[in-house]
Amino acid sequence: MEQPEIKVNHIETKSVMTKSNTPIGGYSVNPYVGCPHACKYCYASFMKRFTGHTEEWGTFMDVKDWPEIKNPKKYAGQKVIIGTVTDGYNPLEETYKNTRRLLEELKDSGADILICTKSDLVLRDLDLLKEINENSRLTVSWSINTLDEEFKDDMDAAVSIERRLAAMKEVYAAGIRTICFISPVFPGITDIEAIIDRTKDQCDLVWLENLNLRGGFKADIMKYISTIVDYFYHEEVRGTANSGKRNVIHNP
After folding, report:
1. Residues in Cβ contact with 42 at an 8 Å cutoff, skipping those fewer than 6 apart
2. What does each C-alpha distance from 13 to 88, 100, 206 come to in angstroms?
3. pTM of the entire structure?
4. pLDDT classification of 231: cutoffs 50, 70, 90
5. What is the DSSP letter of 122?
6. CA gyration radius for the chain?
7. Is residue 81 within 8 Å of 138, Cβ to Cβ?
8. C-alpha 248, offset from chain centre
9. Nearest to residue 205, comparing CAs of 160, 140, 148, 110?
10. Phi/psi of residue 249, each to 5°?
């Protein structure tokens, strides 16, 4: 998938820290609104209901400007998840550096920080991540739901799987806790075992997440699934599905 043309806006917000209503509590922190990865399965498109955007999800990005976090210690021991409905290390981060700014403001907080990404741009901030990791609990998670680059390119405009794996390996080697997040799992298509085998020596944890079918995009994603399942089926019939190019798990 080619990177879509992104309409960029700048917005001011009273705080970048948002109390989380997830079971783990803490804070959900998103330095941007929108995400240029334009993942076909992305549940975060529901955010348009709250932002007033009429553009297609994946074609806009609001760059947040927030007052400096002057008392980071108030988040000590709290879970802080960066990138719940955006990727803080999306390609525009290279220009705007909002995520690096956020990490600099939280580096002495003592918070339990989790960064969720599909990018290798996180390596730009490896010096800062090492510093944070000395005084706080820091984890970096990469979403990987296939080892097939062609399939990945059909699903999203993020960096390649190989670049994600290389970044994970380097961050892990730096002594920082890493997670392979197999998300979303496409039933009958995502080869969980192959992904675990590929990442087992460079991550501390493997998380899995079901495909999220809530929201108005359910019909679109189900149509997409029916298309790719049919494609994978015909690949296997031709004897190529398990040749290394395609890896398929069949559910009974």
Report:
1. 35, 57, 58
2. 16, 17, 34
3. 0.86
4. low
5. G
6. 18
7. no
8. 23
9. 140
10. -105, 130
3-class DSSP assignment, residue 193: helix
Q: Which two tokens stand for residue 175?
A: 């002594």
The contacts of residue 6 (CB under 8 Å, 6+ apart) are 34, 36, 59, 60, 61, 92
**Rounded Cα–Cα distance for residues 153 and 228 (Å):** 13
The DSSP element (H or E) to which 178 belongs, if any, is strand 177-185
- CA 163/CA 165 separation, integer angstroms: 5
What is the spatial order of strands in the sheet that 27-29 belongs to? 17-19, 27-29, 79-82, 112-117, 137-143, 177-185, 205-210
Rounded to a whole number, what is the largest CA-CA distance in the chain? 61
Question: Does residue 99 contact residue 61 with C-beta atoms inside 8 Å?
Answer: no
Residue 78: helix, strand or coil by DSSP? coil
Domains of the chain are 7-214 (3.20.20.70)
Mean pLDDT for all residues in the chain: 87
Place 237 in a pLDDT band, splitting at 50, 70 and 90. very low
Q: Classify strands 17-19 and 27-29 as parallel, antiparallel or unpaired.
A: antiparallel
Rounded Cα–Cα distance for residues 178 and 138 (Å): 9
